[in-house]
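quick one, two chains, predict together pls
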Amino acid sequence: MRQVSIIGAGMTKFGEHWEKSLRDLVTEAAVKAVADAKLDGGEIEAIYGGCMAPGLFAGQEHVGALIADQLGMNPIPSTRVEAACASGGLALRNAYLAIASGAYDIVAVGGVEKMTEVTTEQTGVILGGAGDQEWELFMGATFPALYALMAKRHMHDYGTTEEQMAACSVKNHANAVHNPYAQFQRAITIDDVMKSGYVADPLKLLDCSPITDGASAVILCATEKARKYTDLPISILASSQASDTLALAHRGSLTEIRATKVAGEKALKQAGLSQKDIQAAEVHDCFSIAEVMAIEDLGFFKKGTGGKVSANGETALNSKLSINPSGGLKACGHPVGATGVKQAVEATVQLRGEAGKRQVSNLKNFMTHNVGGSGATVAVHLFARGD
Amino acid sequence: MRQVSIIGAGMTKFGEHWEKSLRDLVTEAAVKAVADAKLDGGEIEAIYGGCMAPGLFAGQEHVGALIADQLGMNPIPSTRVEAACASGGLALRNAYLAIASGAYDIVAVGGVEKMTEVTTEQTGVILGGAGDQEWELFMGATFPALYALMAKRHMHDYGTTEEQMAACSVKNHANAVHNPYAQFQRAITIDDVMKSGYVADPLKLLDCSPITDGASAVILCATEKARKYTDLPISILASSQASDTLALAHRGSLTEIRATKVAGEKALKQAGLSQKDIQAAEVHDCFSIAEVMAIEDLGFFKKGTGGKVSANGETALNSKLSINPSGGLKACGHPVGATGVKQAVEATVQLRGEAGKRQVSNLKNFMTHNVGGSGATVAVHLFARGD
């Protein structure tokens, strides 16, 4: 397989973009990424786009073609990949494989979701389609309910507390203060989280990632040609993907995401690294409990200790392991199809040393972890500076 | 790039499956393909699935994970690809690239759509999402209307007649009589087509492909390992993809599909073949005029003559060029996400010489042509017997 690098990255501010359409958001992120890569748009040979539910949010399918059209890049191939909230991660992986195969040298990867054009109630139902429609959503189990079940079991089995979970949200908001692209550039306290209303006991409003509009993009290039465009390519050391049952009830455990374990191990093996070689990671904190489980299932901390180490500050910026320097899904925002690509944007900015006040120091290897549904799809990528 | 072969193929009967869900359909096609490949399901390393609009048809996104789950194949990677009616073709292409890259040796490719759980009116709106929702569907332009515009212009520019277009439907029904998997295993006459009601002038009911439930699957294998499973692998000589504007109004011409021309030329170039080396093709006849334009844009017949040669019988089974031996979308049926993969199933059956009374004689090279929307995405593949 050929080696693949990132040579450009860009994103919109994440937030509620009442004045911008899906088209506008994609264009803004893509133009920024192309400009950052210092290449001519005509050099791009293919596009991969991650988007979860444009049909349900806007009546528009065929978003791959829409992106190529909107960017004036016809007739190059453009492909939409969907895996719920892991759509962006899989778009990145498939673009990576396409370059690795030798089919293309330069591929643009985009992620986008325009979520605010429907009601909150509709959004809950649409996002429920990421789980098992027949066995979960139809019975009323929306995503906060599913993750609440996982949280309850984690609390029961390991003594994890609501305050410990709240610490993930507080830390992510603290990081987002320094991210100009974040939806919530403001700090919150444990008390704020604890006093916010319950969405699904034990998860409260400030344990949950928000509804967000946004887009993100990276330009991938065969590593052997990356130096033509940049003095500082970001190497993709590994790309992995795993699956699990769609319905939570069909799993062996409520307190671990098996696909995270499998994908994480595969990625580290591909790169020839272990957990101690990773200084920072963007993990999929759609709910605070999801971050607790992610840092355990990725092998950074022992199962059951995720809440405790989060409360102890071991995942804070420039502590033992910097988790979600961007602010994560909770505070940077979670436009579902865009999140996996946004994680790669953050990896690029961090590894270049351009992250300003949220910069992870002594950074060598960066991990991204993107989850679809309640863990039925997981994509993990590893990045480093240079060739 | 590594060479890739098909080692197994299977499909459900296409039709109205009131008693079967999306899950049931996928399972049936996949089990048939795995059995046909004579391999153990555990040898499959990844899944690619094409599906257009499960969110709008059934409230279920994340269909890649659903397929892996339903088949009991967790934790292998499973990816849904969407490009409207070309979803199956792009699933095939991305699986092909993934094997070509060296990431996997054996990959299952599925296509599925369960369309009959909503009303016909809803179906028209859902399928309209394959075009430009803002500039076409919102204004009332459903797909029969868009293809009717192309037909009207083709008639104006080249003198194509309604009877000539009808000849495509009549020929495809004649082929489907011999296809046990076809939705309509019955012959029709030009008179039948001409007397059927207008859907969008000049297109009548029997110019239009039907609403269909169905699934199809092929098993791909690195060619170097294919002989381990079969004495007669089917080689994928070429895979190509191209895009065009989402909206018809933004194109330079109403009488050609530019993405078909680009993808067709690229595929022939990759395989080192010309049109005269192809004996049979499955082309995307979502409407009779689409077949007329496809055989022109793929370079088999001169622009403007597609209607005439169809009426002359030059595309009939075992005439000059056998077009749509399966019965095509018109008579075999068109479960949108499944169609592109079904075309590869037909190529496999034909190249093995197992097509019975619809067998193309002296067959060497087979082309498949899968279109998304009104031509905004096109995938073309070329197949041959042996390594």
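Chain A touches chain B through 66 residues (CB under 8 Å).
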